[in-house]
Design brief:
The protein has 234 residues and is an alpha/beta fold. It is built from ten helices and nine strands. The longest helix is centred in the first third of the chain and has 15 residues.
Amino acid sequence: MGSNLTVMCARSMTSAVDAIAGRFMRASGHQLAVSFGTVGALQARLAAGESADVLILGSPAIAKMEQSGAVTAGSREDIARTSIGVAVREGAPAPDISTPAAFKAALLAARAVAFSDAAVGGSAGVHLAALWGRMGIADEISRKALPQKTGGEVASRVAEGAAELGLTLIAEIVPIKGARVIGKIPPPYGNDTTYAAGISATCADRVAAAAFIAALAAPAEREVWTTAGFERPD
């Protein structure tokens, strides 16, 4: 008889993890209860005393939890990487974002810009909030900003024409019809996010948990991750 495992997972990974979890449950007989949320929200829940058997968060967060003993030593596995991308409405011309100067010009020229709201605690929103200041355009952006609670909402604002540009994790843009990714934010302004999985120190069935992590990282699932807007970490 299979085990019942609880999983806390970064929200941007929803489509890929749901697909892989479904196959894992059918093949193994284990049952998974997966809870998705922003990395910030999940970390707040953990800090408040909640727990899960498998944790899938930003790689630095999992590494810190492994060091503190909250995650089982040696169980950490990098799963997938995504980047903050720029989206435009399907069929709309794509501005040049290939260089820092071109990217800045595209932002300043846009009538409205949708992006992940830093207050929600997602990695993209936190990065972008700091980026506007680094670029020296915080005031200009604030006048045209359409901050959104989820990356999917960012892409939706672009798809419906409310925003000319949308910035959030590529993995959150890909599922939204009517929005298309025109590229990553150019260096040095971009931000790659690597997600890692780890087994909680409180997990009762570490063998089953390790099997699920192995399924997430399996070479056979590479296409699932690619389709969802992720890359496998090097």
